[in-house]
Design brief:
By secondary structure, this protein is mainly beta. The chain has a domain at 1-34 and 205-371: 7 Propeller (Methylamine Dehydrogenase, Chain H), CATH 2.130.10.10. 10% of the residues lie in helices and 48% in strands. It has 3 helices and 28 strands. It has helices at 7-19, 127-136, 141-153; strands spanning 28-34, 37-43, 48-53, 62-68, 74-80, 86-90, 95-100, 105-110, 115-121, 158-165, 170-176, 182-187, 192-197, 207-210, 215-219, 224-229, 234-240, 250-256, 261-266, 271-276, 281-287, 293-297, 302-307, 312-317, 323-328, 332-339, 344-350, 363-369. The chain has a 4-stranded antiparallel beta sheet, with no helix packed on it. A 4-stranded antiparallel beta sheet has the order 2-3-4-5, with no helix packed on it. A 4-stranded antiparallel beta sheet has the order 6-7-8-9, with no helix packed on it. The two termini are 36 Å apart. InterPro entries: Haem_d1_sf, Host-pathogen_enzymatic-act, WD40/YVTN_repeat-like_dom_sf. Residues 131-161 are annotated as: Disordered. Residues 1-24 form the signal peptide.
Amino acid sequence: MYTRFPAKTVLALLLSSVAISGFAESNLIRKPVAVGAYEMVYDQGHHSLFIATTQNRNEEGGVVYELDAKTLEVIKAIKTAQKPFGAAINNRTHTAYFGGSIDGSLIAVDMDSGKVKNTLTLVPQSHAREKAAGEHAVLAGKKGADEMKKRDDHRPPAPRELTVDEQTNTVYVSGVNRDDSVLWIVDGDSLTLKSTLHGLGKLNTGLALDSSSHRLYTSNADGEFITFDTQAGKILSRTKIVDDGQEHLLMNIALDKKGHRAFIADNKAATLLVVNTDNGKVTHRINAPESLSVLFNPQRNEIYAAHRNAGGVSIIDGNSYKLLNTIQLPVHPNSLALAPQENALFVSVKQEAGHGKPASAPDDIVRISLN
């Protein structure tokens, strides 16, 4: 899905490295955790980090690790029957939620006991997808690539991003599809599906919630920024925010709720978009390498972006949009999590891997002290 080190990404990273000195090594802790490390959530009650790991492909299920937020030492290893990828948290109910992209599931984990509370099957027919994914690995050449695309086009939606409304205990899950992406709306207590919203476009991945305004924002590979009213249960607006004839993949969204801003990571273009959430219009384009993940820190008014292909994480000033620092974290910085109480940023870092070439070492978790 990702190309490594495209020229425009390398150029953007080199330019930033010339202007900005490296981050102090003493501010970083980096430790291996497991193969297949993806998204993380910070548990403010236990001052710990819960991270989804899929383990090796030939292993059944996955493991959710709880790590000490200061030392990154393992506190618990919670076995799951499904392979978890996306993550979200309800600090009020002490529940972490994980999306199983391969088998189309949603997993609820009790953070106090470290046990799986319940699992919801969102895509019953998805077991066929796992078999198809295994067959993809033996295909080669143009014929193989065409066959893979054909199969991908007919796959059911796969869970990608998650977010939780702690006021209503509602979990929102983006279901990614090449044709008709969906939004699953789930009761977080009973873990039952309340409704499914269709028609969210190609590869709808980004998801961010402003519960106080009853607004959910999402984005897709069609270049759309979509606003959803969580009270009325309907789409309020969808705005084409990129329409330049180039390929775009609007991957993830971070919100500045007070400033009415959305920061959107584009994994196909060397820019980070700033959108006015009141009208859906782009107000600024930040020059940065292609980004997979993005976070906003309201306490420091800083934006953090993970550049999977370029191998670094950017720290950007929230007022001037100027680059403050670039932290090199090879090989592939993937997901971000913020711990305001710890004044720390966490990054999951993937090792080199691909079809027919499994990772030869565990993925890492990095703790960056923002002091």
